[in-house]
Amino acid sequence: MANGATFRSRRVGFQLGHRAAVLALALIAIGSAVAQTGADRDGDRKSELRTSTQLGDRLSLEEAIALALRQVSAFRQAELNERIAAEDLKQSRLNFLPRLQAAPTAIYTSPLIGQNNAGPSFIAANAITEYQLLFAASGEIDLSGRLRANLRRSSALLLAARAASSAARRELIFVTTQAYYQLALTTARRLAAERNLAAAEEFERVTRLLLNGGEVAPVDLSRAQVQVAARRDELDRARTDETVAANFLRTLIGYEITRPIAVDDLLSAAPREGEVELYVSEAIQQRPELAQIEAERSAALEEARLARAERRPQITYSLGGGSDSGSLFNVGRNAGLTATVGLAIPIFDWGISRSRERQALVRAQVADSALVLARRRFAQEFNDARTQALAALRRFRTIGESVKAAENNLRTSIARYRAGEASIIEVTDAQTTLVTQQAALYQAIYDYQVARARLKQATGK
Which of 23, 200, 254, 318 could link 340 by a cystine bridge, Cβ 3.0 to 4.6 Å? Predict the structure, then answer.
């Protein structure tokens, strides 16, 4: 009896020792996924940011923004509109200056028909050949205020165009920032999916060895295979999301669709304390969109004044000089000066100018309403972005601790399974929990950075 007990004890010990030796391989493979968060902080994971389809120099956020600002976009179109408005203002200023023109003319008239040595055949002609060398300076004296109203309107439209250009620039920066961190998020998910698949495959291989040794039940292998299938599906979805995010960022920064692209590690953009507090609601008034609406309102009021000026008298003038001679050799003998002053008095235009005035005043009312609505919307966007940023910061802190707990839980589950105290279900559940917590950590960082970018845009920075 004693020998039989000893033999069974040795047999059990041999089985446990064999299980421990084989599961050590699984511990090493799965432990690599557990220790990955720590490896991220050590910087070893930076080399993994390049995949076989995305090898290339890593692009920083600042570089991506600089490239996006140089591409054809709504921002570049807004800059062109600003240049057009600047030329309009230049033209409005030059309207106050006289226009200079020269009008050299040669007129030939046939002699009087049927008579010799006679003068020209037309009464109005001064000679058979007449040479006119005339110069004139003409313009308007802004008695009605039309030129001044047009100048103020052009100035307001230029301010509106500049504000629109600034708003388009900030919008492009936000979209680029969001696309950059989206690619960083999908890259992190893809790397995590690759590690999790490798760990699941190794665990399946070890479980198959244990099954062949008669140490585990067939159901354990089935559960390990289910985990491998789930991890493969997760990796396929992660690669697809990464490709889509990379293509969108390439479009923004002007890269060819086949050009490699890589971004900084998402963990390097972890939230920092005190960043959210730097953005205050009072800064909303600095948004260029508000300045654009106010400038458009001013332009509408000047348009009304311009329409009103059309019903007022306007003075025109013309100063000229030159020569009107029958010979090029007697130009100086027939030289002279001329001056003309005219007064244009509007009498009746069937109410067109009054209609234009009312139309401009309605545009000003529309701008007033748009200004009120914009301030409400921008205040809401600021509060929403601030709330989202603070929530993401809290999630980052909480999930960071949860990831550590999930790592310890997986280590404990593997140790218990190796000792025969736990089933494979406990190990696979622990692995799934760790994967979920890692994904939540990456998502929290992404949400924080996007909300922070919205805060910058909401405060006009």
Answer: 318
Among 36-50, 102-116, 141-155, top mean pLDDT goes to 141-155
The span from the CA of 18 to the CA of 84, in Å, is 81
Burial code (b: 16+ CB inside 10 Å, e: under 16) for 165-177 equals bbbbbbbbbbbbb
Three-class SS string for 343-387? EECCCCCCCHHHHHHHHHHHHHHHHHHHHHHHHHHHHHHHHHHHH
Task: Say how far apart CA 59 and CA 123 lie, in whole Å.
Answer: 84
Helix, strand, or coil here: 320?
strand
24 has pLDDT over 90:
no
Q: Name the residue with tokens 């007697």.
A: 330
Confirm if 34 and 415 have CB atoms less than 8 A apart.
no
Note the pLDDT of residue 373. 95
Please name the residues in contact with 44: beta carbons below 8 A apart, sequence gap of 6 or more: none
140: which strand partners?
A: 316
DSSP state string for 395-415? HHHHHHHHHHHHHHHHHHHHH
Which spans in 274-351 are helix H? 288-309
Phi-psi region of 114 (alpha: psi -120 to 50; beta: other; left: phi over 0): left
Contact 127, 108 (CB under 8 A): no
Task: Give residue 126's pLDDT.
Answer: 67
The amino acid that residue 409 corresponds to is N
Binned at pLDDT 50, 70 and 90, residue 114 comes out as: low
Q: Give the tokens for residue 233.
A: 């599906």
Percent share of the chain, pLDDT over 70: 83
- Is residue 323 helix, strand or coil? strand
